[in-house]
């Protein structure tokens, strides 16, 4: 229960009239929150209180007279406009409760006051639009705007600005407060009048007013099948050719992203597409370009996308940092992989990465992932910036960035090293979800911390053991498998994982980590070895030294095995396993193996092989002589280094 004690006192001189004091003149009142009367206000009445005050200050001079009877009781006020009497006891101390202690408020304490003054209605007679606009800027909620509209009567020239201001007042408040404000707005009697006036006066509005009115109605949650929305859509259809203002076109195009499908909506959308397609070469506004691209969407024809790309490239000099961020998002929305445009955007973003918020950084990386676009300079700049400002970011933010980099197969060395030091110093700060993200990103990217590797593994193992009672069988299996990738086998997690009830639960859940008969050998046995690779190897090493399509231990498929005889009697035969891999087997921009490729390399080394990853995409694009040189570098790296040293000495 919330109790509010308040009183109303005049703050200006009064005129004596017989036995009573009649207060007239400018309606200025002071609301003092003191112990005068205690009112029990329900939650709905609390939200109504500002609206009541708004209506109170709008009363005429004759209705704002307060009659103060000549009485010894200072707490008796009779309000002539309501006929009600506010009674209470004399001023005394009041006990009220705060969060930690009980406080006593005395009459002599300084009270907080709020002065409200009725606006000068004469200003509306001289210049009504200017006065209305000035007061509209001071409104802080949709109900305030509706109260103002009620006082000034609904005119066609105030519809657009009123609805737009109502939407703007709800943009910066919390979701819960927005819910209540919109509920009060819908219950306000003037709102229905305002919508009715918008429907009646729609044919009289200018094109930009129609666009802004439609946007405000959609943003305020007005039913899109209502008469007012459908009428405005029909009027815009009839006058679509009159839309010359690029800002109005941009606002109109942006509305369709939040509108439901209907006959009028779909017809207007198609008509707007036809007009904008013709006007693409003449677009001058970057914002209109963004909204036009989003309006056409990913289903646009190749010819339209080419026009949009050409226009965007011609306007890159006008792009601000914010425009570049939105352009990257827009390209991802319409699935337009324009490398020249993406490179220009990435360069500007990398140069100004310190001015970009965390939310925008996440959106940028997600857009790059959707477009399958990678830029080494951009990713390195983000990694180094986050590493240098690591104290600014919490664990959740860092892990979200790391997981996005993992999807992009980029290893942010600086960020991962800095974050590992934090984990070593404060391992208990990791939640269970944080721990899962750390193990997934560090194991998949095959990141080795050199001197800090053992300390890092001990820290994450300590955290893992603390969460063992809370972990499900599947989560435990994932965590242990990630640690095994680092050749780290913690005893307690392994013992729990190998319990009969845990194994039965995993088999019952059909976990993807449980092999169901399909092996890597089965997947690779049907894949033919690249003939160009096989021919180059035989020409380089001889036919007897090369064996293709080898299956080791019934599980590991090897494209080619090269057997080199020992140079001396003490040395053993060298077996080199050549694995043909795609670019996704490496970290972006490096030859560092990740994921399954890194795991296969470890296992083949234990089986006595020297694994070599052959980038097939690069090999196929080379000539026969270039392929021979590439395979020499991969198979005999020490010999190539020795040759390079000799060449340097000769020079």
UniProtKB/TrEMBL annotation:
This is RAP domain-containing protein. Pfam families: FAST_1, RAP. One of its GO terms (biological process) is mitochondrial RNA processing. Keywords: Mitochondrion. One of its GO terms (molecular function) is RNA binding. It is found in: Mitochondrion. Signal peptide: none annotated. It comes from Pangasianodon hypophthalmus (Striped catfish). InterPro entries: FAST_kinase (IPR050870), FAST_Leu-rich (IPR010622), RAP (IPR013584). PANTHER family: FAST KINASE DOMAIN-CONTAINING PROTEIN 2, MITOCHONDRIAL, FAST LEU-RICH DOMAIN-CONTAINING. It comes from the Eukaryota. One of its GO terms (cellular component) is mitochondrial matrix. Residues 576-633 form the RAP domain.
């Amino acid at each position: 229960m919330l109790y509010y004690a308040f009183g109303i006192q005049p703050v200006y001189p009064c005129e004596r009239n017989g036995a009573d004091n009649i207060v007239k003149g400018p309606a200025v009142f002071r609301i003092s929150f003191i112990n005068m009367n205690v009112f029990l206000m329900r939650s709905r009445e609390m939200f109504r209180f500002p609206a009541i005050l708004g209506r109170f200050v709008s009363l005429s001079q004759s209705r704002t007279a307060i009659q103060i009877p000549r009485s010894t009781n200072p707490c008796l006020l009779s309000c002539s406009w309501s006929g009600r009497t506010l009674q209470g006891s004399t001023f005394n101390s009041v006990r009220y409760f705060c969060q930690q202690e009980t406080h006593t408020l005395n009459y002599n304490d300084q009270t907080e006051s709020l002065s409200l003054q009725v606006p000068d209605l004469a200003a509306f007679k001289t210049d009504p639009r200017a006065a209305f606009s000035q007061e509209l800027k001071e409104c802080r909620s949709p109900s305030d705007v509706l109260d103002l509209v009620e006082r000034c009567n609904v005119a066609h020239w105030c519809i657009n600005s009123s609805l737009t201001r109502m939407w703007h007042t709800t943009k910066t408040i919390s979701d819960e407060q927005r819910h209540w404000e919109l509920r009060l707005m819908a219950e306000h009697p003037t709102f229905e009048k305002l919508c009715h006036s918008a429907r009646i006066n729609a044919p009289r509005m200018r094109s930009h007013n129609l666009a802004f009115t439609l946007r405000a109605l959609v943003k305020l949650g007005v039913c899109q099948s209502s008469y007012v929305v459908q009428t405005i859509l029909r009027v815009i259809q009839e006058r679509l050719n009159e839309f010359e203002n690029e800002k109005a076109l941009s606002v109109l195009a942006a509305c369709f992203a939040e509108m439901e499908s209907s006959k009028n909506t779909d017809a207007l959308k198609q008509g707007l597409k036809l007009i904008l397609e013709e006007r693409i070469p003449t677009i001058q506004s970057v914002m209109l370009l963004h909204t036009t691209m989003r309006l056409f969407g990913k289903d646009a024809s190749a010819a339209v996308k080419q026009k949009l790309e050409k226009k965007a490239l011609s306007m890159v000099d006008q792009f601000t940092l914010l425009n570049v961020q939105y352009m990257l998002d827009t390209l991802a929305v319409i699935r337009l992989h324009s490398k020249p445009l993406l490179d220009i955007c990435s360069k500007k973003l990398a140069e100004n990465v310190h001015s970009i918020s965390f939310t925008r950084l996440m959106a940028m990386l997600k857009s790059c992932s959707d477009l399958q676009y990678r830029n080494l300079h951009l990713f390195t700049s983000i990694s180094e910036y986050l590493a240098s400002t690591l104290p600014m970011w919490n664990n959740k933010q860092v892990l979200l960035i790391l997981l996005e980099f993992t999807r992009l197969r980029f290893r942010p060395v600086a960020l991962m090293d800095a974050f590992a030091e934090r984990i070593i110093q404060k391992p208990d700060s990791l939640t269970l979800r944080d721990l899962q993200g750390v193990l997934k990103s560090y194991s998949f990217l095959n990141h080795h911390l050199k001197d800090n590797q053992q300390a890092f593994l001990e820290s994450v193992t300590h955290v893992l053991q603390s969460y063992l009672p809370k972990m499900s069988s599947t989560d435990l299996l994932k965590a242990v498998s990630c640690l095994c990738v680092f050749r780290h086998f913690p005893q307690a997690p392994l013992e729990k994982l190998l319990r009969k009830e845990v194994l039965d639960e995993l088999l019952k859940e059909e976990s993807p980590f449980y092999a169901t008969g399909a092996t890597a050998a089965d997947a690779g046995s049907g894949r033919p070895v690249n003939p160009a690779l096989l021919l180059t190897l035989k020409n380089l090493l001889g036919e007897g030294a090369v064996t293709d399509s080898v299956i080791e231990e019934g599980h590991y498929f090897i494209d080619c095995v090269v057997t080199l005889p020992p140079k001396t009697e003490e040395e053993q035969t060298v077996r080199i396993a050549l694995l043909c891999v795609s670019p996704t087997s490496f970290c972006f921009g490096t030859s560092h193996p990740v994921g399954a490729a890194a795991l296969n390399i470890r296992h083949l080394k234990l089986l006595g092989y020297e694994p070599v990853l052959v980038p097939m995409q690069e090999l196929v694009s080379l000539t026969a002589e270039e392929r021979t040189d590439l395979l020499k570098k991969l198979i005999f790296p020490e010999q190539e280094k020795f040759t390079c040293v000799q060449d340097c000495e000769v020079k």
